[in-house]
Amino acid sequence: MRDSLGRLRGLLRKEFLQIRRDPSAIAVAFLLPAFLLLIFGFGVSLDAHDVPVGVVVDHPDALAASFTGKLANSPYFQPRSFAAMAEAEKALASHEVTAIVWLRDDFTRRALSGGEAPVGVIVNGTDANSARIVEGYVQQAWANWLQAEASERGAPPPLPVAVTQTVRFNPAVSSRDYLIPGLIAMIMTLTGALLTALVIAREWERGTMEALMVTRATIREILLAKLLPYFLLGMGGMAASVIMAATVFDVPFHGSLAVLSATSALFLLAALGMGLLISSVARNQFVAGQIAIITTFLPAFILSGFIFDIGSMPAPVRFITHVVAARYFVAILQTVFLAGDVWAVILPNALALAAMAAIFLGIARLSARKRLD
């Protein structure tokens, strides 16, 4: 036992010295997450702001001007007036505007009579998600304008029932608050796999792995020496990502740091286990990097629920998502950040991460041999 601890201590010292002399692992652990968070955090958004909207008013008057003014004062729209529908449709076809709001000639008469004022909304449906968002914004602007006009005239509300909406966990309805925790899971999936896959592949390229193989160190000691330093680096990168999320992007954090740390450790062990598996089949850094991206980052991005709702996927694809570790970590991060320590969500997902970490590390241990072939 004493000899084993001594060998492990020596191997760990070697790894830390190698990290200090070749700081590429530090770049992967800290600089890559920061860079990806900035790129994705500011570049990916499901919100729509300053949407170019064409406005056509057949009969301009005070009431029509009131409604178009509502659109102009909204942060979601950039209205652009057109004299006729033909001009607006041409602008829609050339992507100069995303939607058209058409106030027909009897708009004022129908609005004052209490009937439904004729408002036409035409939306570019090329991007179905954006089209639904813009349509919802126009409908909300219309409902707010009707309510305000009814209050000014002292008339009854246009709807028999007044609905009070309450949004929990993300009251600002900000897609950034929802996406940033998922982004952290995506980034840690990639960096966790790269930390072990690239480092071990680099040792094969330099010939230092062969030198380790001829020592008295066991394969278990070699694997532990590879895992522990990069686990610490990965947890440091995770801490830096959480700090960036809270300070740079102002994402609220309602859970406990202890829960976040424990579940992050489970996920990072699973990611490092995937990296060890990759290193067992790829002894070239370029190949290891390509495999890490294809087998970890892409499935996590598509099948984790980060952007695409898992419940709306076909049953076979939903089944496949159960082998993607990021699926469970995304659910935990979004819950801990936005809702708090909801154990009904955290516990089953944490158990799944623990099982996946044990499976990946176990397979990596079984596939590792103290042989050069």
Structure description:
With 373 residues, the protein is of the alpha/beta class. It folds into 2 domains: 2-44 and 174-367, no CATH class; 51-153, abc type-2 transporter like fold. The protein is built from 14 helices and 4 strands. The protein has a 4-stranded mixed β-sheet, sandwiched between helices. The protein is elongated. The mean pLDDT is 84.
Distinctive features:
single chain, 373 residues, alpha/beta, 4-stranded mixed beta sheet, 4 strands, elongated
Give the helix tally. 14
The string of secondary-structure elements, in order, is HHEHEHEHEHHHHHHHHH
Determine Rg (CA atoms, Å). 28 Å
Profile the largest sheet. 4 strands, mixed
Strand order, main sheet: write it out: 2-1-3-4
Number of domains: 2
- The oligomeric status of these chains comes to single chain
User: Overall mean pLDDT score?
Assistant: 84
Q: How many runs of DSSP E, i.e. beta strands?
A: 4
End-to-end separation in angstroms reads 29 Å
Shape: elongated
Strand content range: 5-15%
Broad structural category: alpha/beta
Q: List the uncertain runs.
A: none
The helix content, as a percent range, equals 55-70%
